[in-house]
């Protein structure tokens, strides 16, 4: 049995059915079991990274763990909590950690949240794989309300380009890492097939929706005001704005061939993702 954390999130929702369809039994860890539809091969357990007892119960009897924690300052604490839970059982043989592009130690990386978790996975004594994806194509869904209202898409990134990746590719890579022995002791940086800007993404959405969509530049000071008005944590605001600055200056203009290496096919392009998810930009939110 494979334990999947973050089972109701973007990657988990794709990964769980892929694993079950491949013949694996899955245990899904979630704080809200009602968000998962029962199906054969799926065991849903109630758990929380802040509750060590629930984590120990979740890992018991599993042979592999997919470790996904929500971005933010709690990533390190949650990753280490799961690593401690894995240490309580001999059944877990494989750990796959979902990290993020650019992860490194604090002295080398501006975004070290995942570093301690990566190191804990590598030091666990189990076979491991670390996945470092870049920006998700699904992040575009944050523009859905503006697009439905006929408004331009807010752009914090200027003309900065990224190797935007389809989350379905990340999930498919995770299936290979969890179910085969060809990716042990590997750290992969996962990207899409091309470098694209916000304007490129909006053009793809315009094509998929059959109507013109514009963009509007959002300066950093305006973005800060907007995020502050939502009650967002100041530290998270600083991180978001620094990330936007890096993207704006092409600091995340990174492409790798890791998806092709693992899956034996090219990574999925953003236009395909936009076409496949067009209805999410027209249906009521």
Distance between the termini: 35 Å
What would you say the CATH architecture of the largest domain is?
3-Layer(aba) Sandwich
- Please write the string of helix (H) and strand (E) elements: EHEEHEHEHEHEHEHEHHHH
Strand element count:
9
How many H/I helical runs? 11
Average pLDDT, all residues: 95
Give me the oligomer status: single chain
Question: Main beta sheet, described?
Answer: 7 strands, parallel
In the predicted model, the low-confidence regions spanning at least 5 consecutive residues are none
Described by the principal axes of the CA atoms, the overall outline is globular
The assigned structural class equals: alpha/beta
Spatial arrangement of strands, main beta sheet: 3-2-1-4-5-6-8
The CATH class of the largest domain: Alpha Beta
Pfam family, one: NAD_binding_10
Can you describe this structure?
The structure is a single chain. This protein is of the alpha/beta class and 285 residues long. It has two domains: 2-132, Rossmann fold; 134-166 and 191-254 and 267-284, NAD(P)-binding Rossmann-like Domain (Rossmann fold). It has helices at 10-21, 52-59, 75-86, 115-122, 144-148, 167-179, 198-209, 220-229, 234-248, 258-263, 270-276, and strands at residues 2-4, 26-30, 42-46, 64-67, 94-98, 127-133, 153-155, 186-190, 215-217. The longest helix is centred in the last third of the chain and has 15 residues, at 234-248. The chain is globular and about 55 Å long.
């Amino acid at each position: 049995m494979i334990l999947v954390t973050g089972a109701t999130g973007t990657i988990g929702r794709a990964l769980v059915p892929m694993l079950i369809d491949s013949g694996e039994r899955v245990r899904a860890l979630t704080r809200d079991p009602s968000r998962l539809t029962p199906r054969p091969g799926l065991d849903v357990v109630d758990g929380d990274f802040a509750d060590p007892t629930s984590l120990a119960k979740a890992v018991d009897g599993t042979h592999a763990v997919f470790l996904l924690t929500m971005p933010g300052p709690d990533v390190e604490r949650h990753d280490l909590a799961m690593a401690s839970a894995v240490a309580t059982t001999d059944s877990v043989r494989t750990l796959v950690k979902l990290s993020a592009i650019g992860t490194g130690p604090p002295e080398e990386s501006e975004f070290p949240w995942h570093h301690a978790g990566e190191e804990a996975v590598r030091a666990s004594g189990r076979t491991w794989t670390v996945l470092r994806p870049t920006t998700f194509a699904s992040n575009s869904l944050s523009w859905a309300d503006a697009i439905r209202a006929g408004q331009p898409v807010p752009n914090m990134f200027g003309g900065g380009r990224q190797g935007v990746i389809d989350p379905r590719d990340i999930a498919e890579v995770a299936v290979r890492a969890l179910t085969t022995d060809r990716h042990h002791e590997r750290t992969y940086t996962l990207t899409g097939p091309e470098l694209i800007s916000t304007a490129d993404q909006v053009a793809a959405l315009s094509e998929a929706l059959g109507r013109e969509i514009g963009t509007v530049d959002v300066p950093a000071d305006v973005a800060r005001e907007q995020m502050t008005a939502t009650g967002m944590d100041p530290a998270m605001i600083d991180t978001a704005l620094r990330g936007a600055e890096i993207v704006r200056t092409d600091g995340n203009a990174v492409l790798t061939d890791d998806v092709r290496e693992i899956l034996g096919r090219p990574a999925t392009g953003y236009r395909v993702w936009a076409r496949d998810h067009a209805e999410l930009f027209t249906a009521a939110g």
